[in-house]
Amino acid sequence: MSSAIFAQENKAQGILDKLSNKIKGYNSFYIEFTSSVSNSANGVNESSSGKGWVQGDKFFTTYGDNTVISNGIKVWVISKDDKSVYTSSASDEDQTMNPKKLMQIWETGFKNHYVKEEGGNHIIDLFPKNPGTSQYHTIQLKINTTTNMIESVSLKMKDGTNMYYKVVKFTGNAEVSASKFVYDKRNYPGYQEVEG
């Protein structure tokens, strides 16, 4: 029994290592995705689409009416709804806000288990190594068996929130201007800045 589990973990780790190396091999990337967030307890059921550019530790992403910009040191979350800009340290950011961290979420703090191959995808479950301190209950990855690229990420949170991201388009070594990762307040007149 234990040898079968070990074999499944080895298989999952091999696939994830290959994927990590692939993503790290790009100088930059561009991604388009759809996302949904639901929590039946508090009546949340939202879906949106988004896109993001990543270069090193810098990123720019939009989803719904929100824009997130990071220069690798600071993060600016720009909310069109309440015309506010929330500023925080990049070290404090939510992993799901950063396309790069979402595409490499398995690298720290998780055990993995190969579930099965289905519909041309490897299905791999992630479990927190320290469940007591993690906000996640389980994360499930679907990785295309041909391209070895993420098809979707499902995140189950301990508070009952479920988040789902589906990758619609991925372009490695995408051209992107350095100015994309610079927050310029002149682009957001009338917005209130809030330090996080």
Molecular structure report:
With 196 residues, the protein is mainly beta. The chain has one domain (2-55, 95-187): Lipoprotein localisation LolA/LolB/LppX (outer membrane lipoprotein receptor (LolB), chain A, Clam), CATH 2.50.20. It has 2 helices and 12 strands; from the N terminus they run αββββββαββββββ. It has helices spanning 2-24, 99-102; strands at residues 28-39, 44-55, 58-63, 66-70, 74-79, 84-89, 110-118, 121-128, 136-144, 150-157, 162-172, 192-195. A 12-stranded mixed β-sheet has the order 7-8-9-10-11-1-2-3-4-5-6-12. It starts with a helix and ends with a strand. 20% of the residues are buried. The model has no long low-confidence stretch (mean pLDDT 91).
